[in-house]
Amino acid sequence: MLKTDKIAQQKFILTSTLCYIVPFATFDLFFTDYRLKPMKVENTQVQMRKGILEFCILEIIARGEVYASDMLEELTQARMIVVEGTLYPLLTRLKNAGLLDYTWKESMSGPPRKYYTLTEAGTEFLHQLRLTWEEVEDSIRIIRTKPSASGSPETPVVL
After folding, report:
1. Is residue 23 within 8 Å of 63, Cβ to Cβ?
2. What are the per-10-residue average pLDDT scores of the chain (159 residues)?
3. Which 3-state string (H, E, C) describes the chain?
4. How far apart are CA 57 and CA 54, in angstroms?
5. Domain range list for the chain
């Protein structure tokens, strides 16, 4: 066998800093699962929920003044899976951005409670988020109802 034929039967694999010559027979052995990290749907679901959490909080507060514990309960019922350690820093960030305000009210069952309301800036911010949400819904609807490559229309999925 000629030297050029032997070289033609080898594959070159570039790694971050080195170049290895791997015989064709061992090529499949080289690419084991250590390089591929399987994606977990749960991670993507969590990221999607985090992405809309501010929007959901502002929607809840837009209905009227609300206590953080009540927000947490409503978000949990809506399956947003939020914990206090996530909610309170987010409320503080929204307050510091001028989107929320709060008032202290006496409680029959303990210390005074902090009730949140939207500021004028918060109302405008929420309006912009609602427009964006409608655009995202439309975009997803368009993508999900497009005919398949074979030409037959897919059954539209209602969001």
Report:
1. no
2. 51 42 50 71 86 95 96 93 88 97 93 96 98 96 87 58
3. CCHHHHHHCEEEEECCCCEEEEEHHHHHHHCCCCCCCCCCHHHHHHHHHHHHHHHHHHHHHHCCCEEHHHHHHHHHHCCCCCCHHHHHHHHHHHHHCCCEEEEEEEECCEEEEEEEEECHHHHHHHHHHHHHHHHHHHHHHHHHHCCCCCCCCCCCCCC
4. 5
5. 47-141
β-bridge mates for residue 10, sequence order:
23
In terms of Cα–Cα distance, which of 93, 100, 92 is closest to 118?
100
| The CATH fold of domain 47-141 | Arc Repressor Mutant, subunit A (1.10.10)
Q: What is the structure's pLDDT at 20?
A: 45
Give the span between the Cα atoms of 136 and 128, in whole angstroms.
12
